[in-house]
Design goal:
globular, flavin adenine dinucleotide binding, oxidoreductase, AcylCoA_DH/ox_N_sf, AcylCoA_DH/oxidase_NM_dom_sf, single chain, AcylCoA_DH/ox_N, 9 strands, alpha+beta, Butyryl-Coa Dehydrogenase, subunit A, domain 1, 12 helices, Butyryl-CoA Dehydrogenase, subunit A, domain 3
């Protein structure tokens, strides 16, 4: 592994950081999450149109930049630094790789250029609250029981003439209330021949009901989606292996999320260090107290370990090595620790609604709920590496 970044990668990070610093201060962030879309459309147009972020990891023949997952992960490190609410993760990390992996050539040619340009946003919708399970982050997703398992519940897919029709409900769908395209995981085939397939559903399809949910992390909008006999298009064909593709997408998503969390933790630590250098107690800056120095040094060490793991995980996706879940566990823990120490060391203002420290803590907690929890991420990684061969691990 070459740990150095290319001039292009450094340029993307620098340009993106300057753009977000100028256009996404604390007041702009709160205004963006309160909009119906849950993000600033003008900022999204800049991220997509000027910087081409949604197409960073897509091939050039489909309108992308032709970069790697590392390029996308480094960009998301910067968006994580500012908790930038945008459809980037749902569109470029969750949905586009699945369309690229499973879609027919006609579907790729039709959809990917629009996703790469940002003119159309998309998201992945899985039944219930099983996103981590579907992405194989906390256990194997084989069998697809989380999609319905041949019984009532989940999302059911049935033949309707030459097409398909979906019925069911999904929850905690990232940007599900505003996405122009839904990629829905559904169960088909009956109990004896149960299987999980992925379907394309336009955001304005008849019978589709979308309601934005109240989320712990306001910077990651979520929605509940009801499908009431909605016409859908099968992604790829019936021989497409949806479960392995979801697992591969899950590892990539975990690596990108780890970089996001690293960026957020780095920002929290930097602001806390700045604050303790200004806040005085007993006539001295509290940052000069040994106890405070030790606490922040511990955060720094944990952050650097998380950064190394996140960068390695992003690089390893191209080598076929799946370590994203383990990197995500490390990064989420580092972010939670950094945010908690930031709240504590900011004293009386750290826990107030007006201060932004709690937003970083909520990002760590929200991602832990959506893609974890951390101990299950680690347990699944241990099972995959067969660290406890011959022993049963319960979590």
């Amino acid at each position: 592994m070459d740990a150095s970044f290319t001039p292009e990668q450094d340029g993307i990070r620098r340009t993106l950081r300057e753009l977000l610093r100028a256009r996404l201060g604390p007041h702009e962030l709160r205004a963006a999450v309160d909009t119906p879309a849950g993000h600033d459309p003008a900022l999204w147009a800049a991220l997509a149109g000027q910087l081409g972020l949604p197409g960073l990891a897509l091939p050039e023949r489909y309108g992308g930049v032709g970069g790697t997952v590392t390029d996308l992960a480094l960009a998301c490190e910067e968006t994580g630094r500012f908790l930038a609410p945008s459809p980037l993760f749902a569109t470029a990390v969750l949905t586009a790789p699945l369309v690229l992996a499973l879609g027919t050539e006609a579907q790729r040619t039709d959809l990917l250029p629009r996703l790469a340009s940002g003119s159309r946003t998309a998201t992945l919708a899985v039944p219930g609250t099983h996103l981590a399970t579907a992405l194989a982050l906390t256990g194997e997703n084989g069998g697809g029981g989380w999609a319905g398992g041949g019984r009532a519940g989940g999302v059911q897919a049935a033949r309707a003439g030459d097409g398909w029709r979906l019925y069911g409900q999904t929850d905690q769908v990232l940007d599900g209330h505003s996405a122009g395209l839904l990629l829905v995981a559904a169960h088909a085939g009956g109990f004896a021949r149960s299987r999980t397939l992925l379907f394309l559903v336009p955001g304005d399809a008849p019978g589709l009901v979308r309601v934005r949910q109240t989320a712990l992390d306001q910077t990651r909008p979520q929605a509940r989606i009801q499908l009431r006999h909605v016409d859908a298009e099968l992604l790829g064909d019936e021989t497409a292996e949806a479960l392995p593709a979801l697992a591969a997408a899950g590892d990539t998503a975990a690596a990108v999320l780890a970089c996001e969390a690293v960026g957020a933790a780095d920002q929290v630590l930097a602001r806390t260090v700045e604050y303790v250098g200004q806040r005085e107690q007993f006539g001295r800056a509290i940052g000069s107290f040994q106890a405070v120095k030790h606490r922040l040094a511990d955060v720094y060490v944990q952050l650097q370990a998380a950064r190394s793991a996140a960068y390695y995980a992003a690089w390893a996706t191209a080598q076929g090595e799946r370590v994203g879940g383990l990197a995500l566990a490390q990064a989420l823990e580092a972010l939670r620790t950094a945010a908690a120490e930031g709240i504590q060391l900011h004293g009386g203002i750290g826990f107030t609604w007006e201060h932004e420290a709690h937003l970083y803590f909520k990002r760590a907690s929200g991602d832990d709920l959506l893609f974890g929890p951390v101990h299950r991420l680690r347990a699944h990684a241990a099972d995959g590496a067969r660290l406890f061969r011959g022993q049963e691990v319960t979590v």
